[in-house]
Recover the amino acids of this structure.
């Protein structure tokens, strides 16, 4: 997919040369720059859906981008849940969408 | 955008329509809205929707917003993993 990264900004100027690293999101490899957050690296690669809502299964991505809303949480290296917008990328980082529970989980009854 | 598509609480995906229906049906406070719909009980801890829920309830004739916080803050103030609570250091 074509990169969505802003390389030339009318106010901020041109992006300086960055060191490229590789990250994996749901098993697929993406290119990132050192200093990217997970969210910025994936958005630059055209990935807008970071997870599905656990119950409703609707897509979720970056919302506030300042660590406030917890919409962008992803699983890191099969273990910790982190906010993609606050977590800097590292080389060979393995990122996964949080698992949606909608089809398997029992419902808690209705009102 | 229609009220059925306007999401107030993103964490629990509760729409404006659902909140309004609950206020109308139960004539309730914002705290009761939270307990009935789960709006404000998701991972962000109500940071995103607290003010909107308070405002909707007030506009629909519920109790006026006072200086006191109607939707209370409870520990942990930020979401913490069980690992951290259990003493995991990284």
């Amino acid at each position: 997919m074509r990169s969505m990264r802003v390389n030339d900004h009318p106010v901020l100027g041109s992006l300086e040369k960055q060191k490229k690293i590789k990250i994996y999101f749901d098993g697929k490899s993406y290119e990132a720059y050192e200093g990217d957050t997970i969210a910025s690296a994936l958005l630059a690669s055209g990935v807008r859906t970071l997870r599905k809502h656990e119950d409703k299964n609707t897509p979720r991505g970056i919302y506030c981008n300042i660590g406030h809303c917890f919409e962008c949480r992803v699983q890191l290296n099969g273990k910790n849940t982190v906010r993609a917008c606050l977590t800097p990328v590292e080389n060979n980082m393995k990122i996964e969408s949080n698992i949606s529970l909608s089809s398997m989980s029992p419902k808690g009854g209705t009102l | 955008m229609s009220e059925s598509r306007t999401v107030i609480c993103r964490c629990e995906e509760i729409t404006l329509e659902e909140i309004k229906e609950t206020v109308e049906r139960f004539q309730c406070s914002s705290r009761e809205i939270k307990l009935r719909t789960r709006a404000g009980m998701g991972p962000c801890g109500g940071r995103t929707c607290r003010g909107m829920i308070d405002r909707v309830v007030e506009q629909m004739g519920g109790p006026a917003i006072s200086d006191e916080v109607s939707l209370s803050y409870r520990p942990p103030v930020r979401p913490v993993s069980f690992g951290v609570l259990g003493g995991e250091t990284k």
About this structure: The CA atoms of residues 4 and 75 of chain B lie 32 Å apart.
